[in-house]
Specification:
This protein has 267 residues and is α/β, with parallel strands linked by helices. The chain has helices at 19-30, 42-52, 66-80, 103-130, 152-172, 211-223, 256-262, and strands at residues 10-14, 34-39, 56-60, 85-88, 134-139, 177-184, 232-235. It binds nicotinamide-adenine-dinucleotide. Residues 14-15, 17-21, 39-41, 61-64, 89-92, 112, 139, 141, 184, 186-187, 189-192 line the site of nicotinamide-adenine-dinucleotide.
Length: 267
């Protein structure tokens, strides 16, 4: 157990069978949340729900399918009596430049990563309204804050999530529903299993993040971020903070002392 108060909130976590979704499910359950894991990986999802006990259950959810969403939200309401939040976390990665990425692959990645979140918002809002408000956390990426070569479809989907988050936050504010996006950098999960270690080497914090470090942010957004909506939360070891310019202070004419010498004297 950890030291966070038991909030008693009930949330649905998509892609909760493994990776960031599983770590978040575990932390939320330990913190007193009821969690319904929605995923297409039934074996892993059911095993996790069984391990975590009464607060957690698993249901098959394909985020690209509207009926599947309706059924998942109904299951959460039936099991827990209400739904207070949705962690729209399920996603897939696909490599390929704009010219290499086949249109069907591009559509597939947008369908899961972006349309899946759109369908999820539409499915859960009636339940959140019945609960008199709630929180939706959408998983974008640092690839939704800047571009990356050879990730055309993924980058497009993650920027779309960032925009959809703002649109939904504006549309749903009157329903007391907050909508925010999170932007993880490289995190150790099955998705990044084959990434070279050097991917994180140039960051201010030169390491991959752990799923629990994302999970803590998500718990904060569900339980404490009461004045935040329509905005981005970044968990990236500083990856998007900016570039380090390797300029030497001795560069001719650039040293602070020589610049000061060119300023007019104060009278
Ligand atoms: N790992 C990273 O470095 C990283 C960085 C930034 C953003 N993200 C994002 O975080 C989220 C989780 O990623 P992860 O690293 O834990 O990946 P992961 O591959 O370990 O887990 C993703 C989960 O989503 C599920 N999923 C896939 N398609 C689905 C569908 N149609 N319906 C329901 N579930 C489906 C998978 O079964 C899996 O359990 C993704 O949206 C990913 O894009 C990951």
């Amino acid at each position: 157990m950890n030291d966070s108060p038991n909030t008693g909130q009930s949330v649905l976590v998509t892609g909760g069978a493994r990776g960031i979704g599983a770590a978040t499910t575990r932390l939320l359950a330990e913190s007193g949340f009821n969690v319904l894991i929605g995923d297409v990986r039934s074996d892993e999802g059911e095993r996790l729900a069984e391990e975590l006990g009464d607060r957690t259950a698993y249901c098959h959810l394909d985020v690209t399918n509207t009926e599947s969403w309706v059924s998942a939200v109904a299951t959460a309401e039936r099991l827990f009596g209400r739904v207070d939040g949705l962690f729209n976390n399920a996603g897939i990665l696909g490599l390929g430049s704009v010219m290499e990425c086949k249109p069907e692959v591009f559509r597939k990645i947008l369908d899961v990563n972006l349309v899946g979140i759109f369908l999820g918002i539409r499915a859960v809002v009636p339940a959140l309204r019945r609960a008199k408000g709630g929180v939706i956390v959408n998983t974008s990426s640092i690839a939704g804050l800047q571009g990356y070569a050879n990730l055309a479809a993924y980058v497009t989907s993650k920027w779309g999530i960032r925009g959809l988050t703002k649109a939904a936050a504006l549309d749903l504010a009157r329903d007391r529903i907050r909508v925010v996006s999170i932007h993880p950098g490289p995190i150790h999960t099955p998705m990044t299993r084959n990434f070279p270690a050097g991917v994180a080497a140039g960051q201010p914090l030169p390491r991959f993040g752990e799923p629990i470090e994302v999970a803590r942010m998500v718990r904060f957004l569900f339980s404490e971020a009461s004045y935040s909506t329509g905005c981005e939360f970044v968990i990236d070891g500083g990856a998007t903070a900016g570039a380090v310019l390797e300029l030497e202070p001795e560069l001719p004419g650039m040293a602070v002392t020589s610049i000061a010498a060119t300023l007019p004297a104060r009278t």
